[in-house]
Amino acid sequence: MIKFDSQRLIFGLFVLLFIVVTELLTARLKLPAWPAYVAWVLFFIEQMNPRKAPHILVGAAAGIGLVLLAPPAIGLLAPMLGLEWGRLVYILLAVYAIVAFGEMVPLILNNYAFLYFTVAGIALQTPDANPSVWVFMALLGGGLLIAATMLTGKIMGALIPAEQRPA
């Protein structure tokens, strides 16, 4: 038999509330919500571990930052290699940097940076693509969603009777 967890059901309602607020604000301000949502989903994937939040947000900025660096870098490579090869070499160098140097600077070059580099690279093909706004939305919007989730979790945790709290 399925046992419903009332705490989880209430927490789910707060998640829905955060989605509604995010959608209304981003629509009104004409801002893309996806960078914030990706950060938030990554936080959930990491089991809402607060220690992972800085890695997610800084990685987001690094990944999108690599997309922002692409035009000048490709511009430097294109005269030597041609545009297509210049683009490919830049992508390979960016991915190599993330993978090879991630152990040395895990706050910046991490799997989150890789994900955002990939998704932002694809999103460049959308109308009105603006990676600078995406960085802002990942940091501010994602940061707010993560903070709201952590705060809700703390409040919800405080509402659990002491005898029912996990040890």
- List the total number of helices: 6
Overall, the morphology is elongated
Helix content: over 70%
Cα end-to-end separation: 26 Å
Topology order in helix (H) and strand (E) letters: HHHHHH
Q: How much strand?
A: under 5%
* Secondary-structure-derived class: mainly alpha
Poorly predicted spans: none
Number of domains: 1
Mean of residue pLDDT?
94
Beta-strand segment tally: 0
Largest sheet: none
- The radius of gyration computed from the alpha-carbon positions, rounded to a whole number of angstroms, is 19 Å
Structure characterization notes:
- This protein is mostly helical and 167 residues long.
- It has one domain (6-162).
- Helix content is 75%, strand content 0%.
- It contains 6 helices and no strands.
- The chain has helices at 6-29, 34-45, 53-81, 83-101, 111-123, 131-159.
- Helix 3 crosses helix 5 and helix 3 (53-81) packs antiparallel against helix 6.
- The chain is elongated, with a radius of gyration of 19 Å.
- The two termini are 26 Å apart.
- The model has no long low-confidence stretch (mean pLDDT 94).
Give a nutshell description of this structure.
By secondary structure, this protein is mainly alpha-helical. The protein has six helices and no strands.
List the helices and strands and how they pair.
Blueprint: H1 6-29, H2 34-45, H3 53-81, H4 83-101, H5 111-123, H6 131-159
Please describe the structure with a list of short key phrases separated by commas or semicolons.
mainly alpha, 167 residues
